[in-house]
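Title: Comparing notes on inverse folding

I've been comparing how different people in this forum approach sequence design from structure. To keep things fair, I'm posting one structure and asking everyone to reply with a full sequence. Here's the target:
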């Protein structure tokens, strides 16, 4: 398991994201956004990712920066109601999401990282990318 050390600014960003998850945030137009980071971003790219995951016999996944992703919830695939685990045919998923205090990072067949890098302090990006590769046994999606 990798222990990525973030910069001071990177840790400050994580604290802001933690607050946003709990309290939401106000946009410049005054609208308050609730349920921050609850989207399952992978859902938008499920068909593209399925090809790659299926072609590499992936059975374990690390969802790195998974937000509010729920791999067990029904209707990830709207046509048949399958969960994400069923849709991709994987056995085990671990979600790492520091803004939600989900801190486990297990080395897995595949690391999925959607909508993460733009939230990382710029000087931390190279080390984070190295960590993504170090946590993947077979494939990085």
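Reply #1:
Here's my take.
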């Amino acid at each position: 398991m990798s222990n990525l050390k973030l910069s001071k600014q990177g840790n400050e960003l994580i604290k802001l994201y933690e607050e946003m998850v709990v309290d939401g945030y106000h946009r410049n137009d005054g609208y308050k956004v609730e349920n921050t980071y609850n989207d399952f971003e992978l859902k938008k790219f499920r068909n593209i990712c399925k090809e790659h995951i299926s072609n590499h016999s992936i059975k374990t996944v690390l969802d790195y920066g998974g937000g509010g992703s729920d791999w067990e919830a029904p209707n990830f695939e709207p046509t048949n109601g399958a969960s994400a685990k069923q849709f991709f045919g994987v056995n085990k998923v671990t979600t790492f999401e520091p803004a939600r205090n989900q801190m486990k990072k297990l080395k897995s067949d595949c690391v999925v990282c959607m909508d993460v890098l733009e939230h990382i302090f710029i000087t931390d990006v190279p080390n984070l990318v190295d960590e993504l590769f170090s946590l993947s046994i077979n494939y990085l999606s």
